[in-house]
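Lab channel / #folding
Pinned by the channel admin:
"Please post every new chain as: sequence first, then the structure tokens as a reply. Keep commentary short and put observations after the output so the thread stays searchable."

First post following the new format, from NK:
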Amino acid sequence: MLHVFNRNGALLFMVALAVCASAGLSSAQDAALEDLAAIEAAKTSIAWDSGPIKVTIGNGLGVVEDAAIAFTASAAIQNVTVVATSTVAGFVDISPAYFDAVPAGVPCSLTVRFRVPAGAVAGRYKGSIQVMSGGLKYNRTLGVTITVDYAGAAVAAATRVITQSTWDALQYAAPDYSLIEFLAIPAELVFVQPGDVLASGVTAQTPFGLVRKVVSVGSDPDTPLSLICSGATLADVFTSATLAITKVLSPEDVADGQDPVGGSGPYDFFVPYADVLHDADDDPGTTDDRVTLAGTIKFDSRFSFAFGIAASVVQSASFTSETGREIEMTLDAQSGIAPFAKETDLWSRQMKPLTVWVGWVPVVITPVLTVRADVAGDVAAPSQASVTESATMTAGAEYAGGVWQPVASFSVASLAGAASPAPGCNVKARVGPGIDLLVYDVLAPSAQPDGYLRTQTGAVPEPWWQLHGGIEADIGVATGVLDNAVSGAMFPAAVQYEALVAEGGGTTPAEDGFVSGIVRDAATGAPLAGVHAVATIEGSPAAGGYTIADGTFTLTVPAADGYTVVFSKTGYLSATYLDISVAGALTTYLEPILQIDEPDDPEDTGAIGGTIVNALTGLGVSGLTVQLREGFNNTTGTVVATAPLPTDAAGHYSITELAPGNYTARTYGDDYHDAYFSVICVANLTIDNQDATITPILSPGETRIVLTWGEVPADLDAHLTGPVPDGSRFWIYYYYLYHPNPWAAYVLLDHDDTTSYGPETITILEQIDGVYRFCVHDFTNGGSTTSTALSNSGALVRVYRDTGLAAMFAVPPNRAGTLWAVFDMSGDTITPLNIMTFDPTVIHP
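Reply from TO:
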């Protein structure tokens, strides 16, 4: 003001203003004040650290990055706001938008985020960002040009985009947003109705974004608006759309509040790890009874994700993950361990959500990086093995023409290892960095590229051990958030590479094996403790012991064929299990031993009956003979009873006036392989549900696998994976009984059962060179992470060749898991696995 007025005049005028303030200013004086403030503002200039902002948004082509800008004022300013002009205000969020004070010459940083208002018309919008104080605008605004380009995207009429202002009125939301209640009716939901699709970007209440379909709309005096919602898909949100995003992830992308674990050299991430896979006594104070996996992983990660929608149907989609990595891994077994499997997450980091604007809808994609490890196998004595690997890998999947296809490539720069295994160390350990993508809050595609080590001992006499290193990648696509009409896909081991990295010579040291199982009370099914189990071979004792509290037992014996185990306990009839084969460092599991109460009168008898069904149909088979021999697994001894009549039209048989005890039943007839199964007879009772399965005779080269079990759980499923001539692998299970089987020339699922007992039957019509793996999945308890129902189901797996029964496996008892990896088969060699786990990757060798 001093430069406008003379010194005396200014003083007088200011005094006059002070006097007039208590009495109110005239309009002329108000105008004079405004002029003075404007003149003062004109003296303060604003400088921006960037040129004009130009953004194209709405076309679905990647993330529109936030603009990080700063301004500097030439003089101090108080109560400062930063605003966008009305032409572009709907497209930008400025943070922070208010400063109590701006010092002279000090940069003030801002972040400008971009959005598309619902229903915005495509075109170019020009405006500016301005610094203001007390209603006055300072000079030097920052130009902003927003180009809205929808690139053919069309948002469905029922889609409603929900912003933070609506969520600010939230009263309650169920964890899965199936129920959403509001304290007031937000403007964006005034006309909401069933069938509408709610789409939200990242907000305080929806950190991963959200897409849901409104099922019903309600209200009450305490809740003005209540929405019942279900899941929704992108095909519900758009009638047509394309999205494509490629992102290189770095530690700076890790979500706030998590240690980013920065990398070194050419890699962005560095993860040291050490995990105890097994602790025999569960005592952290002792370390000489553990199996551990330790090492380091250095890696970088880049992903691409895209989809195309037309006519409200997903027409195309793709996902690829590219990683470069160096992996060091050491498996250290300080003690032996029976067959086991474990999967664990060693490290996991959620990345910051990425928003791609398709039309005026924010599609939120959240990457999650996870270093996972899994180990399966058995270790008979202390062993060590280590592998180092450097490789790059691309893994993913593409959807077109209604079919998903894997995308996979790799390059190995180096692979080396060393080992000092003991006999019976047959184990595979995998570790690697994987990526999962959440589309909104729903898991969509994932890729898990792993490096691994695999030890093998005793397979050949010279060398007696080998260490292999390799890489493999599992790819999965869940499509629940894309389109309900599109099926998901799983490509286990889409990438596979293995090389021999070390081996050792000499003669394989001798090693023991194990006989294990469970003993139950025949009347109640309860486990029996204190049952004496004695193993003999050729009449000489080999081992003995007692069942523990849960009814289980394990006997350690030299590897050999022809063991007999006798089970005895006061008050019960002894039970004998014959012709047991035991391999070195492996466990032979027996079917459950049902111990029968001693009868009050030794002359008392009972009766048995049951139904013999066809393994291919589940229907009864007539005209079959049923014979009995004493004991379990007695296939060659004296026949002590024969059913007086062949099985009837329903396949039923019965035998009466039978001495109490355990028996092996043989059933046979024209055009069928002989079938053997265990039955019990209890004094003064008729037990009439002792059923069995018989298979038609196989042709040379064919193999048939038959799964049976008890009443609980209701639904067990047979899964078989194996090679096909083009070098890929099949995976057959119940799905292919009801849908076209692309491998019908090589393998068939003959029968599926969902109501207890079985059978579930798979037939290999033509065996191809390579490894087959058979597993059993507990479908009933598939969502559990603690269930032991499969382990206690009494499940039995029988393998038939054209010569008859080739192998039989009993499920390991009292073990948690919903998957039982039963055996591998290569040529004529059937190798027991007996791995109980919750890890679905065990299905694939």
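NK: The two ends are 86 Å apart (CA to CA).
TO: also worth noting, Residues 1-39 have pLDDT under 50 and may be disordered.
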